[in-house]
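Collaboration report, partner site 2.

Our partner group contributed sequences for two proteins of shared interest, and the home lab folded both. The records are reproduced in the order in which they were received, starting with the first partner submission.
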Amino acid sequence: KSQSKTAKVNMAEEPITTTVATPENQPPAVLTPPGESKSTQEVWATIEAEALAKATGTDPPETTSKPEEETAAAQPEVSPEEHHPPKVTETETASTDKKELGDAASQKDEAGEEEKKRIPQNLGSFKEESSKLSDLSVSEKKSLDELKHLVRDALDNHQFGSNPKPEDSDTPEEVAIWGIPLLKDDRSDVVLLKFLRARDFKVKDSLAMLKNTIKWRKNFKIDELVDEELVDDLDKVVFMHGHDREGHPVCYNVYGEFQNKELYNKTFSDEEKRKHFLRTRIQFLERSIRKLDFSSGGVSTIFQINDMKNSPGLGKKELRSATKQAVELLQDNYPEFVFKQAFINVPWWYLVFYTVIGPFMTPRSKSKLVFAGPSKSAETLFKYISPEQVPVQYGGLSVDPCDCNPDFSLDDPASEVTVKPGTKQTVEIIIYEKCEIVWEVRVIGWEVSYKAEFVPEEKDAYTVVVQKPRKMKPSDEPVLTQNFKVNELGKVLLTVDNPTSKKKKLVYRFNVKPL
C-alpha cells in the first residue's frame, strides 16, 4: 500500500495548485512557464541563447531537438518491480453549482455563530506537564526525592497496610499500584509525580493521598476486579478508540445512550445495579491505565471525550447520584490521568451546570476543558485528533472495531481540506503505474456536489466517469468509498463543489495496489 502525505492547501481567487507528495524515483521535472508546451520551451531556450550571443559577440550555439526515440532512451529504465506512489495536488476554483442552499446555509451559519457565542470553546491555554524526569525543576526534583524517602520509610514500617508486618522481621512492605511496584521499578517515579502534581508538590499531602488511595484499592479489591469477567451492556456508552495527535489514547463517553429506558433501568434502577455500574467503570479504567506508558517521557494520560448529545441531563437522580460517586472516586484515587476533557454536542443546559461549578475549579483544571456545540464538534475534534482516528459518527473516517474495513485502518492517514464558500475543490491524484486505487471521501454535513472521474494521459482517450455529479445531503451516507482499476496512466479527479455560504471540511484518503 502506498498513499499521500498530509496536504497543505493555499487558497486564492484564481486556481491554485499545491503539490503534496512527489513520486519516488521520478526524473526531476523541467520548469516551463505556465501554459507553455515542450516545443515552446525550446523556443525560449533559443531566444535566451541568441540574446547571450549578442551580449558576448559570439555565434549562437546550434539547438537541435533530439528524436523522441533518443529522448526516451535517455530516461532511466524502471524495472516492473519498482513502485511509483501517486502524486497529489489540490486545486481551488469558483463554484459552478447553483446556490440553491444559500438561504438555508446562511440561517445555519447565523445559528452556528449564536451557538459559538453561548458555548465557551476553550477555557485557557494548557500545556501538559512533561513526564520526563529530566525536565523537572530543582524544587520539583527535591519534592520527588523527599516523597520517595517518606515512601521508603512507610514501606519499611508497613504503614500502607497492604499486609501486616511479620514479627521479628525487617522485610519491607511490598505495594504495587497499576501493576507497578513502588520504589522497585523506575516507572514508580512517574506514579509518585502524579500524586505530587495533584497536591501542588506538597510532599506530606501527596503521601497522605497515596496512602488513602492504596487503602481504598485494598478495600475495593482492585487487583481481583481487573481479572473478573463482569457482564454489562455499556460497550457503546464508554469505549476507547484511537489516539490523538500527540499519542494519547482517546476515551469516549456517550451519555445519550442512556435515553434508552431499558438500558437506563438495567443500569441505575436500584442500589445493587448502581454498584455494579461503578465496578464495571473502575475495571474499564484500570485496564486502560495499565496499557499506558509510565516510563520517563512516556504517554501516561488519557484524552477524554464526553458526547452530550441527547444526554438525559441532571434531572435523572439515579444517574446524577452514580456520576457524583464516580467523579469523587476518580478525583481521590486516579490523579493526573486526564490530558484533556472535551465536551461535544453541548446543549444549553450544560452551560447552566458549568456556571454553577466553574467558580470552584482551579485555573489549571479549567484550562483542560474544551467545549463544542453540535455544529462545531467535528472541527473541534480534528484540532486534537487526526480524521482517520475519529469515529465516523463524530465526523471522522474510522469505523467501529467490530465492523470490517478491508481497505483502510487507523494507520492509513487522511488529508483535510477546507472548501471555502462558493468554491470548488479538486483533488488530483496522478497515477504513474497500472494499479487499483480505492479512496474514501466525506464532507462534514455534506450540502455539496461531488463527482469523481479518471482522465487518461493519452490526449485522444476518453474521460471515465467514476461518479457522476451528485448533490450530497446531510442525510446521505457519511463516507463514500469508491475504487477504480487503472489500466493506463492518467489521473483521478475528486471534485467537491460548495455552493453554500459556509466553509466545509473535506476529508479524504486513498490506497493503491499495483497490478
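Second partner submission, folded after the first:
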Amino acid sequence: FVFTFVDVVDNEDFLPLVKTPTEAVGLKAASLPAPQTSTALQNISLKHPWTEIQNTVYNICGSKQLWGNNGNVFSFDEFQEHPENVDEEQEAEEGTLEDGRMGPRLNWIRKARWMNSGFPGSEELSREKNSVDKVSVLQQQILTLTEEVKSQKELVKLLHKALEAAQLEKRVSSMYLTAAEDKDRLELVRHKVRQIADLTSRLEALEQEKKELEQILALRDSHIQELKEHVQLLMEKNHAKQEIIMTLTEQMARELSDPLQEANTITVETLYKQQEEIEHLKDDIDAYKTQNQFLNSEIHQVTRLWTSVAENEKALLMKCACLQARNCQMESKYLTVLRKLQEAVPDLPSSHAELVKSLIQEALQWDVKEEAEEVSFELNTTLCPSSEYDEYGFMTVPDYEIEDWKLLAKIQALEIKSNKLRSQEIVEKPLRDRWNSIGELNPSAELKSLIRSGIPVEHRQRVWRWMVSRHCSPEPGHYQRLLEQSRSTEHPACRQIELDLPRTLTNNKHFSSPTSQLVPKLRRVLLAFSWHNPAIGYCQGLNRLAAVALLVLEDEESAFWCLVFIVENLMPADYYSDTLITSQVDQRVFKDFLSEKLPRLMAHFEQYQIDVSLITFNWFLVAFVDSLVSDILLRVWDAFLYEGTKVIFRYALAIFKYNEEEILRIRDSVEIYQYLRFFTRMITDGRKLMNIAFNDLNPFPMKLLRNRRSMHREELEAELCELEQIKAAYVKERAEQGP
C-alpha cells in the first residue's frame, strides 16, 4: 500500500498486530491475552482475515486519535465510536513510554504529525517568496494529497475484499461448528476440497491461456519486426532513388548551363526516359529479390519435408528388415521341423509320410526371389537384396544333388539372410562408416581390428591390393613374359590344370560354365604361376586360391601376384610340394591345439576313432574355399591375407567350437563323419564365429605355433626317413627273390 508517510518510517513497528492462535476465532480469540507486538506487516495472516482486519482497524483508529483534526485524509470516523480527548492521548503516550514497548510507535506518530502539519516553515516561505511560488507549493501539496487519497481508496478496496473473505470464512466456520454430525462436517470439508480443485483447474486453464497469448504475442512481435525491416528496406530504396534523382538533376543542370556543350547534351525527354528505365529495372530487381526470398522459404520447407520423409522411410526400412528377419527365422524353424520329420519318415504311417514329402517338395520349390517380388516398394531390395547370387557370384542357396542336403541348404540360406537383416543397421552400417573414414592405409591395431571384423565389398579390392603389395612387389612385364612362355611352350602341368578348371567353384556363376569370362583368365594365371615357380609347378588347390583372388581383384595380373603372395609368403615352405610335408605338419599341430583348446571334443573323437585330418586337411590347403559360405569365407580371407596362417588355425578351432555341442550328441562314428562332411555349411552367423576365433581362443601366440611346427616337422621327417628305409629294404628283398 502507498502512504505519504512510508518514506519516513524506517525499521519501526508499523500497524502492530494481535497474534491470534490458529485454533480460535471471534470472541474466543479476542478474550485471549495479547502477545508481544510484531515488527512488520509480514505477520499479517490470511488464514483468519477477520481478526487481522479488527487489529488493523484498531491500530488505524488509535493513530487517528493521535493525528487530531489537522485535515489529514487518514480519517476513519466510522471505526471510532468514542473519541478520546487530548489529555487521554497524552496519558496513553506517557503510559506507552513508561511501558517501554510503544516507543517506536510514538516516534512514528510524531513523524506522521510532522508530515501532515502542512510543511513547517510555510509562513516564512510565503513572506519571502511571491505568490507564484505559493501556488506551486500548494499544487504540490494537492498532488501529494491526491496520491494519498488514491492509496487510501486502494486500502479501502482491499479491506472490503478481506472483509468479504472473512465473512465467508465465518459463515463456513459457523456451519462447520453447528453441524450436528461428523458426516455433515465431512461434507463441508469435501465441498471445500472441490472448490480448491476447481480453482486449481481454473488457474491451470488461465496459465495455459497465458502461454498461448504469449506465443501469439511473440508471433506478432516477429511479424512487426519483419514489417519494420520491410519499411526500412523501402526507406533505404526511396533514399537511394532520391540520391539518384538529385545526381541526375545536378548533371542535367550542369550540362544545360554549359553553352559549349549544348550540341552534345541529352535532351530532357531522353533523360526522363532513361530515368524511367532505371526505375523499372530497379523495381524488377526488387521483385526478383522478393521472389528469391519466397523461393528460399519454399526450398527450406521442402527440405524439411524431405528430411522428415527420409527419417520415416529409414524407420520403415528398419521395421521391414526386422519383420523380414523374423519371417526368415520362422521359415528356417519350419524347414528344420520338416527335416526332422524327413529323418523320421520310415517310422511314420504312409499317409503321414506322404504329407511330409509333399510339404518338403513345396518348401523346396519356393524361390527366395519370390519374396522380393511380393514386396511392393523397391527400397526393400536396397536394404537386403534377395537374389539367387551374391555380390561375387556365389549361389545364395547351394544346389546340392543329395535330396537331404537341399532342405539343409534352404535352411542355411534363410539363416544367413536373417543374420544379415538383423546386423544391417546395428553392425554393418557403423563398420562401413569407420571404413569410409580411413584414408591412406597403414599397419595399426585399429586397422587389424577392422580387417578382422570384415572388409566391406566396396573397400575389399583396394585393401587386398595394398596387403599383397606390402610383401610382394610386382615386377613390371613379368606376368606378360610368363604368358608368352606358356603360349610358346606347353607346361607339364597343363593337362592337370585343364582337368581342374571345370571343378573350380562350381557354385559360382563366373566359373560354373566353360564359357564364363573368368575361366580363361584363371587358366592363364595358373599357367603363368607354373612357369614362375617350377619347384611347385601346379598343385591341386591352387586353382581355388586363384579363383577367389580373381573374383575380388578382377584383374588377372593382380590375381597372379596375390597367388604368389599366398604360396611364397604366407604359407610355409613345401606346403604345396609333391610330398605336402608342411601341410601334414600343420595337421599334427592342429590336433595339439584341438586337445588343448577343446579337450572334451578331442576325447570324443578319440573315443570313436575319428581322424579330423581327413576333414581339416583340405581346409588348410585351400584356406576354407568350398567349405564355408561366401560371406564368412571372404571375412576369413581378409584376416588371412593380413595376419597369415595363424588365422586358419584360429578359424578351424572356432568352427569345431561353434558346433561342439552338436558333435558331442552324436554317438556313432559313421554319423560323426557324415556330419563333419557338411557341418561347416551350417555356420551362418559370421559375427559369432569371428568372436570365437579372436576372443574365446586367446591366447594364441605365433611363437608357440612356430615351435610346434618345428617339433612335428622333425618327427615327420624321421618317420618318412624310416619309411624310405623300409621301402628300400623291401625293394631289395624283392629284387633278390627274383620275379
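Feedback sent to the partner group on the second submission included the following. The chain is about 70% helix and 0% strand. Residues 479-570 form a domain with the Helicase, Ruva Protein; domain 3 fold (CATH 1.10.8.270).
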